[in-house]
Specification:
Blueprint: E1 3-5, E2 12-14, E3 16-19, H1 23-27, H2 30-42, E4 47-49, H3 58-70, E5 78-83, H4 99-113, E6 118-123, H5 132-144, E7 148-153, H6 158-170, E8 178-179, H7 189-194, H8 196-201, E9 205-208, H9 237-243, H10 246-262, H11 266-275, E10 282-285, H12 290-296, H13 299-302, H14 308-318
Parallel strand pairs: 3-4, 3-10, 4-5, 5-6, 6-7, 7-8, 8-9, 9-10
Antiparallel strand pairs: 1-2
Helix pairs in contact: 2-3, 3-4, 4-5, 5-6, 10-14
The chain binds NADPH dihydro-nicotinamide-adenine-dinucleotide phosphate.
NADPH dihydro-nicotinamide-adenine-dinucleotide phosphate is lined by residues 19-21, 23, 49, 154-155, 180, 209-215, 218, 220, 229-230, 267, 284-288, 292, 295-296.
């Protein structure tokens, strides 16, 4: 495993990490979740990603039970939660980035995860109904109280992140240090273009999600639609519509033959491609089976096969390199 500093912080995070969206507390049983965490940890993964909304709190409960059962030393891993969507409650006070929900959601996450503090606490989406100042104060206070160590954002715009920073700086508060954006061979604009100044100015770290575009980049949708996979799950038609498109499948077939030439599987090539970007601090893996995780872990060593020439061949296939501004 490789470790890097998360942005400009001193926190050393593993370049591959494990997330629990749609799997823990939903698609897979608790024993399978435990096996995944054990394999991840034994292979040097030190970051486990979670959120209040994942399986409406169940994902954090499952992870909390596993953390307690496995008894890993608290100083050996990083665990996150994310706030905004709530955990299923429909009342007006049960979601958002207002001080009340941020405070209560943090306490609920600590309880479910059975930990005394969260290493990372992320604002899962921007909240147009709450002033950014209120959220910065709420996060600062949680850090001052020792309940959170670092805070960040997910799917915020560069401008929103910068606003939070400016307010924090002007008021001597602790600002966000990390953003969690989608990043994969199909979705590149934010990470490669929009945030490019933030890496320099504020030292933004990134924990990127959906490196396989929910499984399309595993190649298993290339020839037919397989049974029992994420994109066939009830209620996830929106995710299937987003990812299972003719263009994506076509590109994935072309990438597959390039991966074959290199002696790699397509998921390993796709994850290694994310790792090649130095502005990516960690790639959060998702897996419904231990065999998937074991395969995907090979991406660390596969990076050396992605030479300049191979990266150019990938660009030729994708044809979607974000255009940088001329200034
Ligand atoms: P991926 O895009 O890598 O999708 C993971 C899924 O793809 C697996 O659950 C599995 O689904 C399939 N898969 C993975 N590896 C293989 C393989 N080798 N062969 C075949 N199929 C494979 O990542 P996720 O979308 O799961 O995102 C990762 C994490 O990022 C999440 O768990 C979460 O922590 C975070 N996240 C954050 C978001 C945010 O808004 N901040 C949003 C989404 C995710 P299956 O077997 O069911 O087909």
């Amino acid at each position: 495993m490789e470790y890097v500093s998360l942005g400009k912080t001193g926190l050393k995070i593993s370049r591959l990490s494990l997330g629990s969206w749609l799997t823990f507390g939903k698609q897979i049983g608790d024993n399978d979740a435990e096996d995944l965490m054990r394999i991840a940890y034994d292979n040097g993964i030190n970051f486990f990603d979670n959120a209040e909304i994942y399986s409406r709190g169940m994902s954090e409960e499952v992870m909390g039970k596993i953390l307690t059962k496995l008894g890993w030393s608290r100083d050996s891993y990083i665990v996150s939660s994310k706030v905004f969507f709530g955990n299923g409650g429909q009342l007006p006070t049960q979601k958002g980035l207002n001080r009340k929900h941020v405070f209560e959601a943090c306490h609920q996450a600590l309880k479910r995860l059975q930990v005394d503090y969260l290493d990372l606490y992320l604002c899962h989406r921007p909240d147009k109904a709450t002033p950014i100042e209120e959220t910065v104060w709420a996060m600062h206070h949680l850090i001052a109280q020792g309940k959170v160590l670092y805070w960040g954002t997910s799917e915020w715009s560069a401008q929103e992140i910068m606003e939070a920073h400016m307010f924090a700086r002007q008021n001597h508060l602790i600002g966000p240090v990390v953003e969690q954006p989608e990043y994969n061979l199909f979705t590149r604009e934010k990470v490669e273009n929009e945030f490019s100044q933030l890496y320099k100015t504020v030292g933004l770290g990134t924990t990127i999600w959906s490196p396989l575009a929910s499984g399309i980049l595993s190649g298993k949708y290339n020839d037919s639609f397989p049974d029992s996979t994420r994109l066939g799950m009830e209620g996830l038609e929106w995710l299937k519509d987003k990812n299972f498109t003719e263009d994506r499948v076509l590109k994935s077939r072309q990438l597959n033959s390039l991966a074959d030439d290199l002696g790699l599987s397509l998921p390993v090539l796709s994850i290694a491609w994310c790792l090649k970007n130095p502005t990516v601090s960690t790639v959060i893996l998702g897996a419904s089976k231990t065999s998937q995780l074991s395969e995907n872990l090979k991406a660390i060593s596969a990076q050396e096969l992605l030479t300049t020439e191979v990266m150019e061949r990938i660009e030729l296939i994708m044809g979607n390199k974000p255009r940088k501004p001329d200034y």
